[in-house]
Amino acid sequence: MSVVPMKDIVDRAFSDRYGVPAINVFNDLTLEAVLAGAVEARSPLIVQTSVKTVRSIGSGVFASLWRSLTEGIEVPVSLHLDHCPDRAVVTECLKQGWNSVLFDASALPVEENQRQTIEVVKEARLYGAHVEGEIEAITGVEDDHGSDQETARQSLEVSLRFIEATGVDVFAPSIGNAHGTYKATPVLDFDRVTDIVERHPIPIALHGGSGLTSEQFSDLIARGCAKVNISTSLKETFMKSSLTFLTEAQKNDKWDPPSLFAHTRADIVHLVVNLAGQFGSANKAW
What's the 3-state SS for the chain? Predict the structure, then answer.
C-alpha cells in the first residue's frame, strides 16, 4: 500500500466504525515519526498540515518530503490540508499533490460558505482529491487560525443542506469540542453526530481530539467519527520530550543533536501507536 485518496481511508473507517488518526505535523522529524508509528501499528493514517506549516516550510519542499518518506510505505496514508480559508493556498496544495483539503469558510455566512465550497469540491475533483467541509468554527486558536469565541451552531436541516449541496466527502460539526488544551473534560453533544449520520451517512471529522477521554472517543467513533484530529498532543509530546532530553544534556554538559532527534522520534512513534490502538485503527491497514 502507499498514498491513497483520503476518501478510501475514511469510508472504510466509517463503515467498520473505527477512527483514523489525522495528525498535524510541522517538520520533517514529526512527519517521519508519525509515518513510522502508523507502520508499527499497521494503521491507516491521515497526515495533516496547517496553513502555517505550509507557509513556513513551503508547499513544494513539504510535497517533496512527503513523496520521499511515503515511497514504498506499507500502510495506506493520505495528505490533508487542515483549516484553510485561503482559496489560493487550497489551489497551491492541490497542485502539489495534497490528497484532500478542509476548506474552512466557517467565518462566512452559510450561503456563501456553501457557494465557495461547491467550487472547491469541483476544483479538488480535477486533481482526484477530496474535501472536508464545516459551517461552524471549532472553538480555539491553533497555528494562528480560529477564535476562542464559541460560535452558534446551525440547525440539523442547515447542516444536511450544506452536505448535500456541496458534495463534501467528510463533514466536521461543532459538538462542544475545541482546539488546544481542554481546561476541563468538555461536555459534548454526541447526539448531533448521530442525527447527521442517520439522515445522511457521511464520515464525520472530530476536531479537538487531544484531551478527550477514552469513553468519549469510543462513543463518538461508534457514531461515525471516522477521522480523529490530533494536533496539540503531538506538539506537547515533541516539545516536552525535547525539553526532557535537553535538561539532561545541560546537566551533563553533553550536546548530541542526533540523540535528541532519536529520543523525540521514539516518543512520537509511541504516541501514534497508542492513538491507533485507542481509536481501533491498529491492524486495519490493507
Answer: CCECCHHHHHHHHHHHCCCEEEEECCCHHHHHHHHHHHHHHCCCEEEEECHHHHHHHCHHHHHHHHHHHHCCCCCCEEEEEEEECCHHHHHHHHHHCCCEEEECCCCCCHHHHHHHHHHHHHHHHHCCCEEEECCCCCEEEECCEEECCCCCCCCHHHHHHHHHHHCCCEECCCCCCECCCCCCCCCCCHHHHHHHHHHCCCCEEECCCCCCCHHHHHHHHHHCEEEEEECHHHHHHHHHHHHHHHHHHHHHCCCCHHHHHHHHHHHHHHHHHHHHHHHCCCCCCC
Going from N- to C-terminal start, the domains of the chain cover 6-279
Is this structure's pTM higher than 0.70? yes
pLDDT in tens, 207-261: 987 778 899 999 999 999 999 999 999 999 999 999 999 999 999 999 999 999 9
Q: Is 169 a catalytic residue?
A: no
Catalytic residue of the set 8, 16, 82, 189: 82
Q: Which residues are annotated as a binding site for dihydroxyacetone phosphate?
A: 180, 208-210, 229-232
Q: Span 6-279: which CATH code? A: 3.20.20.70
Q: Which residues are annotated as a binding site?
A: 83, 104, 134, 179-180, 207-210, 229-232
